[in-house]
Write a structure and sequence with these properties.
This protein has 467 residues and is an alpha/beta fold. It is 49% helix and 13% strand. It has helices at 12-24, 35-44, 61-71, 86-94, 107-140, 147-159, 176-185, 204-212, 229-232, 248-260, 286-291, 297-303, 320-335, 344-352, 358-372, 385-395, 411-425, 430-437, 441-447, 450-459; strands at residues 4-8, 28-32, 49-53, 76-81, 99-102, 166-169, 194-198, 213-214, 226-227, 237-241, 262-263, 272-273, 277-282, 306-309, 341-342, 377-378. It binds adenosine-5'-triphosphate and magnesium ion.
């Protein structure tokens, strides 16, 4: 659409002549004979450039300029001033006016000025749109390009337009909530509400009334009627987070709603018809919960109409650089810091570490690094110790494992046990073992007696399993 130019002047003849000039340029034109009227237009329409007389009764051009900056910051303002009020116009420039021109207005001058203001407004609008897109990349959208993740994105895109119930599974921090929001945003319900509720965070008795609402007097303390989340999510999406924590009694009620499509407030008599799409999430193995008798089988099948598993980050390591740079861009901006990338060592540590906390843990590690960093690149020194340690561990491809040490074991003995076990995992490589343990290699000798260490190292590759 052609950009809109708004002219504000209290004299009709001025409005007419300016309007004629601008229309001839092919611009859309709106006119206002007072500052107040101009503000109305600014509130209603996307005005590219406002051309205003500086001297107007009521709201002066200066006041209008100031108001316009709040009501419509994307609008550029050009002031028209009579000879003798140039000083005021210069002051107005400091308030953010784009330019001013003096009367009598020359056609080619005002056209040129307004055209340049228009170009600036367009450029700023484009920048804003780009920035919004980038921000969306970081905050709103699921990032990932690994085959395992592309399959997830495809499944979500396919499920989104339907009203089918979706069960999202995956470890903590894998993006289940983000996925639920994506399902909503890509659905025809996007303009309706997205209502999340965590079944773990809310005590059982309260969860029930939160979900279904209650009538006044339904129980002691129910002094007023309360609408439940189901009602609130009407024509939208209800996100049942940590659904595996739901108590049996609430499970029964939920099942009824899913079967009948109606909810009843506690103490209510009238069933309410609701149009709600359910997305549920859990980091538990819900099928195992069913087998263990903790989760109703019939409810499980109702929820699992479409099942999407968010893979842990360690199963899509290819995506780590992509995620790390997206988080860096977003967090550097948020914290007003400079870093624009990672050193090779830092990136390789990020790619090697196991990320038990998945994407959330990565996001936090990047945030910490951004805050700590002092240069243009994030170094491995800016990363949490555990992440940094991962790089050394990779060099020797150490198998992960654990050992049982009885409570009350003397510390000295604990140290010896851990050192010995680590040495065995590194196949006697004491430099690597020291790196993993975060101590100097010679400390290993000091902590073990020399013979012992020598014997362990000497035993070499593939030593046995005995303690
Ligand atoms: N694929 C992804 N792309 C971008 N950001 C992600 C992605 N996955 C997760 N995140 C971010 O990681 C954090 C955790 O994600 P989210 O809350 O969706 O995880 P979750 O699976 O619901 O975890 P939990 O089970 O602990 O509730 C959020 O800040 C989210 O923005
Ligand atoms: Mg979550």
């Amino acid at each position: 659409m052609e950009p809109l130019v708004l002219i504000a002047d209290d004299e009709q003849s001025n409005l007419d002549s300016l309007a004629r000039i601008f229309v001839r340029e092919g611009w859309r034109v709106a006119t206002a004979d007072s500052g107040a009227q101009a503000l109305d237009v600014l509130r209603r329409e996307r005005v590219s450039v406002l051309v205003t007389d500086l001297m107007m009764p009521g709201m002066s051009g200066e006041m209008l300029l100031r108001a316009a900056r709040t009501v419509s910051p994307e609008t550029e303002v050009v002031l028209v001033t009579a000879y003798g009020t140039v000083e005021a116009a210069v002051a107005a420039m400091k308030e953010g006016a784009y330019d001013f021109i003096t009367k009598p207005v020359k056609r080619h001058v005002i056209v040129k000025t307004v055209r340049r203001a228009m170009e600036k407004a367009n450029l700023l609008a484009e920048n804003r749109a780009l920035r919004a897109q980038l921000a969306g990349l970081g905050s709103g959208a699921l990032i990932g390009n690994a085959p395992a993740f592309r399959a997830v994105l495809d499944a979500l895109r396919q499920a989104a337009p339907t009203s089918a119930t979706v069960l999202l599974t995956g470890e903590s921090g894998t993006g289940k909530e983000l996925a639920a929001r994506m399902l909503h945003d890509l659905s025809p319900r996007a303009s309706g509400p997205f209502v999340p509720i965590s079944c773990a965070a809310i005590p059982e008795t309260i969860l029930e009334s939160e979900l279904f609402g209650f009538e006044r007097g339904a129980f002691t303390g129910a002094v007023a009627r309360k609408e439940g989340r189901f009602e609130r999510a009407d024509r939208g999406t209800l996100f049942l987070d940590e659904v595996g924590e739901m108590s049996p009694s609430v499970q029964v009620k939920l099942l009824r709603v899913l079967q009948d499509g109606v909810v009843e407030r506690l103490g209510g008599t009238e069933p309410l018809q609701v149009d709600v799409r359910i997305v549920a999430a859990t980091n538990k193995d819900l099928a195992a919960e069913v087998r263990a008798g903790r989760f109703r089988e019939d409810l499980f099948y109702r929820l699992e109409v479409i099942a999407v598993r968010l893979p842990p980050l360690r199963e899509r390591r290819e995506d780590i650089p992509l995620l790390a740079s997206a988080f860096l861009r977003r967090l550097a901006e948020r914290h007003g810091k400079v870093p624009t990338g990672y050193t090779e060592e830092a990136l390789s540590a990020l790619e090697t570490y196991g990320w038990p906390g998945n994407v959330r843990e990565l996001e936090h590690a990047v945030e910490r690094a951004v805050v700590l960093s002092r240069g243009t690149l994030i170094t491995d020194g800016d990363l949490p110790d555990a992440v940094r340690g991962a790089r050394g561990a990779q060099a020797g491809t150490v198998p992960t494992g654990s050992m049982a040490i009885p409570f009350g074991t003397p510390m000295e003995e604990v140290e010896r046990l851990v050192i010995r076990e680590t040495l065995r995992h590194t196949r006697g490589d004491k430099v690597l073992a020291a790196q993993l343990l975060g101590i100097a290699p010679r400390t290993i000798y000091r902590k073990l007696d020399r013979d012992d260490a020598g014997r362990l190292v000497g035993r070499g590759h593939g030593s046995g399993d005995e303690g």
